[in-house]
Amino acid sequence: MRQMKKITAVLLAGALAAGLAACGGSPEDSGKNGTVSGSGGAHLNFSCYSYSNSMDPITNVNSSWCFVRYGVGECLFRFDENVNVENALCDSYETEDYTTWVLHIREGVKFSNGNPVTPTVVKESLERLYQAEADKTGNSTPSQYVTFASIEADDQAGTVTLVCSSQTVGLPGILAYPWYGIVDTGVIDSEVIGTGPYRVADVQENSSIELVKNEYYWDGEVPYDSITIYLTEDSSTKAMALKSGDVDLVENITTPSDLAELEADPQYYVSKTAGVRLGNSYFNFHGVLGNDALRQAILCAIDDETMCNVTVGGMYTPGCSVLPSSLPYGSEQLTDAYSYDPERAVQILDEAGITDTDGDGYRELDGQNIHLNYLAYSSRNLDEFAQAVAISLEAVGIGCTVTVQDYDTALANQSAGDFDLITSNAIVVPTGDPTGFLGNFYSGNSDTYGYYVNEEYDALYEQLLGSTDEEERLGLIIEMQQILIDDAATLVHGYYNSTFASRADVVAGAEITPMDYYWITTDIRPAE
Predict the structure, then answer these.
(1) pTM for this predicted structure
(2) b/e map of 71-95 (b: 16 or more CB within 10 Å)?
(3) Residue 333 DSSP label
(4) How does pLDDT run across 418-473, given as a tens digit for each residue?
(5) What CATH homologous superfamily does 1-49+197-267+504-528 map to?
(6) For residues 77 and 173, is the Cβ–Cβ distance under 8 A?
(7) What CATH number has the domain spanning 53-190?
């Protein structure tokens, strides 16, 4: 098996090299020493997983992230490396009641096509996002974080006035989330144009993206004249391309042996950030997993310690709550109601009458064999988690088929409720605190995440939304985490650490930040 994996990786690396040659010359022509041969312009070759074929913020959550991650678009605000909110396209704001916010739009900013960023365009961009949610023409759900009673633009004053439907304490952090990336609404029907340091020159779907310098960029020098993004599904292929010099920078090497080799070699620089990402699987409460005993048994059947430390080679830290233990949200006060105990899993199922009555090896619920439809995508070891979970469930008589899909397809199936379990890896402080992420389990938002409903949880979440007292908020967050644990509301795997790896003699400034909405930034530049 090891030899087969090696052969497969070599073939994939060869395919990547062929792609490099097809997209603008040979590898030697497109990235050695950070330049494009014959042009004299600085060029970067970057390899990453294909998270979405779209960069339109309305398409889905990952398309909005690609819009920002690739340096194509920006939001009104952004996060620094310490998860503090900074001004971006908005350069100042004021509010007296946390309901009405007056945002001043930075003067002189242009989209990458030269069109000006005006308050009216900002208004139209935000309205388009919410209209797409209402019309179901996109899968992004901005109302999960905030809704507006009104949005008004005053181009003469240079302001946008947002009136929230309810008191919203952390609006700048919310507006830093990629869903709220500002697009040029005047051309959006034909192309997605943002204000980032780079603009899209060409897209080869599922293969590559060509970026060029935004000549109108407002926030300092843009270090590269062009960038090629190679969309690469296999982690080892990314590592091999980096080592061969075919690419200069890669995100998230998830094969432990590859990552360890790069970290040990001074030719490469590996940037790693403490995990604020949760690896979990959502349950669909509208199917068989609406049965409490079945979910409880699943949690007891899964050995998260082994999965995190062995199956995925320490890429994750195990835990029982939706919020990582590295964050100050009371993990030490929580009780794991369904820790690993396969004998207890069997007992729970038997006592609930979920048994194998016909001797075919599979337990039945309501007279039907349980056979779970488990959707996964291959990013950040999630497919490995899903396969390990399926094996564990089969051992206690629960049938489970894992289907690995590309992310856009998996998200569409998730939004349609066409799954029993689906993997996820998400930042749990998406707006600077966990309120937005905890909203995934609020009944007003949870349709996209498996239809979980708990009235007590809903009441606490609504109280959290309106609270401005830090001590009260912490208490609410701890209580909500425990409810999710007690309800077996989701299958928590562990907490992921993100990485960048780069060629040290070619690339400088390639640091991964906790809020990994930002990959291609002006901080990443040719090494001197």
Answers:
(1) 0.77
(2) bbbbbbbbbeeebebebbbbeebeb
(3) G
(4) 999 999 998 999 998 999 899 999 999 998 899 999 999 999 999 998 888 889 99
(5) Periplasmic binding protein-like II (3.40.190.10)
(6) yes
(7) 3.40.190.10
